[in-house]
């Protein structure tokens, strides 16, 4: 059978990426793209690179030297632009991850079709940009989005009601949703945090420190483990021992947060309880990176702990 290679660079991007689309496959033993959210991010970045190649007069992703040369030029241009515009390191690392997947997709395509062309060897060049981005770009651009609170610790300390303060602490430290701390926004839903959610202490999977583990049922009935300080975990244990469960009306909890936000000069319409989840995601991502996680690994870990399970959703919390 004669191999038919698309003429357009953008069509070529689609052809190679389709070969590593693995939405219904497990991640073990496969370097494909496993979630729709990641697919959208990587596909978008791949097409931007294809346009860059097109503008330089290139015609094919199978031209090894052209792709390698253009990718180096493209990444250099991106890094210079991000440094000049004070963009975050994570933004650059998203591009690096996307082009890594594109390179893998091209090589997979060559192998799958038995083409007599040289495969790409871009990994060394691509990995050189990670330390360069660490030097030239800040961990965070501090432009994550205005839903995060500027000073969440002071916000929580200003909440006088012990129930609301404990709920806020759990959200900020562990990434729980409001429904996970017993305050679902759906008035017809009851989801108290009970002794069943107390899972004892364990080592934090990121830092290795001893933490308390709180299991909460959130977002479509999925149960997620959240990691909080030993102090907060102890407070939760004592609260449940006394009151049997942690629960409040959502509107009352949000009102307490808004009141504290106004008193501490942090009020902004729409922040509410979800602002604390933004704080958690941003800080957790950076904590993962500081402990040696790659951009993708940090996003994945943060996704799991925020009950998203898809990296694309987490980007709305952490992209700078």
Protein architecture, described:
The structure is a single chain. The protein is mostly helical. The chain has two domains: 9-136; 152-318, hpI Integrase, Chain A (Orthogonal Bundle). Helix content is 54%, strand content 7%. It has twelve helices and three strands; from the N terminus they run αααααααβββααααα. The protein has helices spanning 9-18, 36-55, 64-84, 89-113, 123-136, 152-157, 162-174, 230-243, 250-263, 274-290, 295-305, 311-318; strands spanning 198-203, 210-218, 222-228. It has a three-stranded antiparallel β-sheet. A hairpin with a 3-residue loop joins strand 2 and strand 3 (222-228). Helix 3 (64-84) packs parallel to helix 5 (123-136) and helix 4 (89-113) runs antiparallel to helix 5 (123-136). The longest helix is centred in the N-terminal third of the chain and has 25 residues, at 89-113. The protein is elongated and about 70 Å long. It starts with 8 loop residues before the first helix and ends with a helix. The model is unreliable at 24-29, 141-145 and 309-316 (pLDDT under 50).
Describe the structure using short key phrases.
single chain, 320 residues, mainly alpha, hpI Integrase, Chain A, 3-stranded antiparallel β-sheet, 12 helices, elongated
The whole-angstrom Rg is 23 Å
How many structural domains in the coordinates?
A: 2
Sheet with the most strands? 3 strands, antiparallel
CATH topology of the largest domain: hpI Integrase, Chain A
- DSSP helix count? 12
Summarize the SSE layout with pairings.
Elements: H1 9-18, H2 36-55, H3 64-84, H4 89-113, H5 123-136, H6 152-157, H7 162-174, E1 198-203, E2 210-218, E3 222-228, H8 230-243, H9 250-263, H10 274-290, H11 295-305, H12 311-318
Antiparallel strand pairs: 1-2, 2-3
Helix pairs in contact: 1-2, 1-4, 2-4, 3-4, 3-5, 4-5, 7-8, 7-10, 10-11, 11-12
């Amino acid at each position: 059978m004669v191999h038919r290679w698309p003429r357009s660079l953008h069509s070529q991007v689609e052809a190679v990426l389709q070969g590593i689309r693995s939405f219904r496959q497990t991640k073990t033993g496969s370097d494909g793209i496993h979630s729709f959210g990641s697919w959208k991010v990587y596909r978008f970045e791949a097409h931007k690179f294809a346009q860059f190649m097109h503008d330089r007069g290139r015609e094919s992703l199978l031209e090894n030297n052209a792709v390698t040369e253009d990718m180096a030029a493209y990444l250099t241009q991106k890094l210079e632009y991000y440094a000049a515009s004070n963009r975050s390191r994570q933004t650059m690392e998203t591009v690096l991850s996307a082009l890594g997947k594109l390179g893998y997709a091209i090589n997979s395509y060559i192998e799958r079709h038995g083409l007599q062309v040289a495969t790409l060897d871009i990994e060394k060049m691509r990995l050189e940009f990670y330390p360069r981005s660490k030097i030239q770009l800040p961990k965070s651009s501090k432009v994550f989005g205005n839903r995060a609170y500027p000073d969440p610790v002071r916000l929580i300390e200003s909440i006088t009601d012990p129930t609301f303060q404990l709920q806020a602490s759990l959200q900020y430290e562990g990434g729980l949703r409001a429904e996970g701390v017993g305050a679902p926004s759906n008035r017809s839903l009851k989801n108290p945090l009970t002794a069943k959610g107390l899972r004892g202490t364990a080592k934090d999977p990121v830092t290795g420190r001893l933490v308390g583990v709180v299991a909460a049922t959130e977002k479509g009935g999925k149960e997620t483990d959240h990691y909080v300080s030993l102090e907060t975990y102890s407070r939760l244990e004592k609260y449940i021992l006394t009151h049997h469960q942690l629960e409040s009306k959502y509107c009352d909890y949000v009102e307490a947060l808004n009141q504290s936000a106004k008193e501490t000069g942090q009020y902004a319409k729409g922040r509410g309880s979800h602002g604390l989840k933004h704080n958690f995601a941003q800080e957790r991502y950076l904590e993962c990176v500081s402990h040696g996680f790659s951009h993708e690994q940090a996003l994945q870990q943060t996704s799991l702990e925020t009950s998203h399970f898809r990296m694309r959703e987490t980007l709305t919390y952490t992209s700078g």
